Amino acid sequence: MYMGKNNKAGYSKRLKDFLESDTTEAKISTVALCVLAVSLMPMLVLGAGVMGNAVQCFKMFEGSKKYSKKQIQSAIDNIRRQKLIEYVADKNGKTIVKITKKGNTRLRAFDIELMKINKPKRWDSKWRLVMFDIPMRFTKGREALRYHLKELNFFQFQKSAWIYPYPCEDEIIFIADFFGVGKYVEVLTVENFLREEKLKKNFHLF
Q: What is the sign, positive or negative, of the torsion defined by CA atoms of 120, 124, 125, 129?
């Protein structure tokens, strides 16, 4: 999972907002997996843990009220069939839930989709310049990175150079690493540009 500056509360809030949304992307199986992840991770640390009652964990979010107990249980069963989670017995014979490697990958992708870059109350008058020179064999990773830079409202300065006014190093490296191109990406902090008025206007910094 993405650690960075996020904590369990921040992750839970993004999940809660997602649950309460009416977007078509709010698929119940994905929601179920994420609720399990929150219930299993004291501080978003991967591994096994006691789930307790999966349905009760799910009900901790107001938005889950739109789903019935039967739907929730069906979702839990579904993510198990997809091998996103597995049930194992601990040394005391108690059944515990473990999020699999495949499940972790799904969660990381979901975390990227929910990702937002925090904006400080005051801009520090510095720019973050994301630059990359990604080999052609990583075309999918390069295009995925560009897509998410656009989604996060970065300004395309040049073909492989994007600008943002707020700290974003953790978020960008997390995305780049997820798509296997992290070592080709650099994030620079720049004091000013010759024609930065256009940038200030784009980001409403006047």
A: negative
